[in-house]
Amino acid sequence: MKEEYLITVNVATLWTTKESAREMDKDATGRPTCLTRWLKHLDYERRVALSHDNLVQSQALFGQSVYVIEQSGDWAYVLLKDQPTSKNTEGYPGWLPKSQLMEKQMRDYDEEPLVVIDSPFALLYGNEKTPELLLSFQTRLPLLKIMGDWLQVMTPIGEKFVRARDVKVYDSVHTIPKGKGTDIVAYAEMFLGLPYLWGGTSAFGYDCSGLSYTVCQAAGYSIARDAHDQAAGGTEVKIDELEPGDLLFFAHDEGKGHIHHVGIYYGQGKMIHAPN
User: Fold this and answer.
1) E strand spans, the chain
2) C-alpha closest to that of 225 among 242, 237, 207
3) Most buried by CB count within 10 Å: which residue of 39, 146, 239, 263?
4) ω into residue 131 within 30 of 0, thus cis?
5) What distance in Å separates the CA atoms of residue 120 and residue 124, rounded to the nearest whole number?
6) Would you place residue 223 in the very low, low, confident or very high pLDDT band (cuts 50, 70, 90)?
7) Which residues participate in catalysis according to the annotation?
8) What digits encode the pLDDT tens for the residues 242-271?
9) For residue 109, what pLDDT is reported?
């Protein structure tokens, strides 16, 4: 029987198996995580191994909801509800340390006001003077109260605070407006120069489809997590009719094989993407 849990760290990595995480990955598997230190110690070869050795599937942000399907020792096999995928109709699959999960005790806030982190990073405060957690772009939390320059939010670890300057406020998740293609491009521009991270869906590092998934979400569009699913869910556009914000897909065998990469059309014959 599946149970619903919430992510209690700023970014939780979904591993392919419970044995996938290496000793060098402990900063990504603890609670709290320290992704900045983790990524600093991953040289190019160790980053590439996350993909080539099939170690990582995706990532989840603080407060996101997952279904726990199986538990084994200190690990749980989960489905991440907010990331559509052809791998499972109920969410993106992967293994997480159980220490990064908390059984859901909050009610659903889908019809109530929420805040969305709109800057690359924002601090979560225990009170107006005590920062507790560094949150990533597009972290979403229920809004409890507006207090001038501060917003009180509900989180899996209790009532906390964020600064109004770091977020956007919506009446509900259903009222997030759909932006223009230029808005998608503008969000992507925020991360120019950010090193590539296989499986990444946070401002600490994106992979190609993690970037397109996230910036489309920021602009009000829900698309699939992976490039081949994004292509299957979209509407084909002729290359001479491209507009900023359209997605560009790349496939093996001169475009006839498996889709392996996605970029975002920038305009003027350019694209913005996570390339490495």
Assistant:
1) 3-7, 11-15, 56-61, 65-72, 75-80, 92-97, 101-103, 114-117, 121-127, 130-136, 140-147, 150-155, 158-163, 167-170, 201-202, 205-206, 247-251, 259-267, 270-272
2) 207
3) 263
4) no
5) 13
6) very high
7) 208, 261, 273
8) 999 999 999 999 888 999 999 999 999 999
9) 77
| Mean pLDDT rounded to a whole number for the chain | 95
Tens digits of residue pLDDT in 167-217: 999 999 999 999 999 999 999 999 999 999 999 999 999 999 999 999 999
Write out 231-246 in H/E/C secondary structure.
Answer: HHHCCCCCHHHCCCCC
Contacts of 274 (CB under 8 A, 6+ apart): 194, 196, 200, 206, 207, 208, 210, 211
C-alpha separations of 242 from 171, 235, 266, 270 in Å: 33, 12, 9, 11
